[in-house]
Amino acid sequence: MANNYPFIPYKRAYITGEEMLSKSQAYYQWMDERRTVRDFSSEPVPREVIENIIMTASTAPSGAHKQPWTFCVISSAELKTQIRAAAEKEERISYGGRMSDEWLEDLAPIGTDWQKPFIEIAPWIIVVFKRSYELVNGKKRKNYYVSESVGLAAGFLLAAIHHAGLVALTHTPSPMNFLCKILNRPANEKPILLIPVGYPAEDATVPDLARKTKDKVMVFYE
């Protein structure tokens, strides 16, 4: 099978072990400052910043380079009101009985509930959709490793948001199909994340959580 992609040289500047250690430690410490925030400011954020953040997310690797994602970006107050109402409808049902007792117990220390005012307060909402297939000349063309690819792009997105000096929340109302209807998305797209983006409110607080230590998250085979 012929390869449709020409191959081009690729090089990166060489970094010594000492500099690499310093850079990796600094990046880890900086990323460790990233937190999920639920208290947003309504202060505007330039559209160009959001565009750059999303284009950074879209540099993520994907199965067969299919790039099976769509980022829907909402600043419309009318749409945000519709989305909040639909999300809270589903969340009220979830917190009222759809979630298991164990799930609710695990959420209790974080203090979440069915109310989602941040959807209307944050200047931008990014809804991440995964695309299970493409339509090419009226025929379906399968995408590969869709969930894995979109998960990688979402990780890049959160890092880019943090790098821009902003905060985010990965909100997952379930089910999320209402977003397809409100945003008029095609049948090959399914929403997986609803992410408010903006500045933290002046009085924002976050739970005093501890992340797992290295012995809990990595296993070396040397």
Descriptive report:
The chain is α+β, with helices and mostly antiparallel strands. The protein has one domain (37-201): NADH Oxidase (3-Layer(aba) Sandwich), CATH 3.40.109.10. Helix content is 39%, strand content 15%. It contains 8 helices and 6 strands; from the N terminus they run ααβαααβββαβαβα. It has helices at residues 17-31, 47-57, 77-98, 101-107, 118-121, 146-163, 178-182, 214-217; strands spanning 69-74, 124-131, 133-136, 139-142, 167-168, 189-198. Strands 1-2-6-5 form a 4-stranded antiparallel beta sheet. α2 (47-57) crosses α6 (146-163). The radius of gyration is 20 Å and the shape is globular. The relative contact order is 0.20.
Can you summarize this structure?
The chain has 222 residues and is an alpha+beta fold.
Pattern of helices and strands: HHEHHHEEEHEHEH
The CATH class name reads Alpha Beta
CATH architecture: 3-Layer(aba) Sandwich
Number of strands: 6
Secondary structure elements and their pairing?
Elements: H1 17-31, H2 47-57, E1 69-74, H3 77-98, H4 101-107, H5 118-121, E2 124-131, E3 133-136, E4 139-142, H6 146-163, E5 167-168, H7 178-182, E6 189-198, H8 214-217
Helix pairs in contact: 2-6
List the main descriptive attributes of the protein structure presented here.
alpha+beta, NADH Oxidase, 8 helices, globular
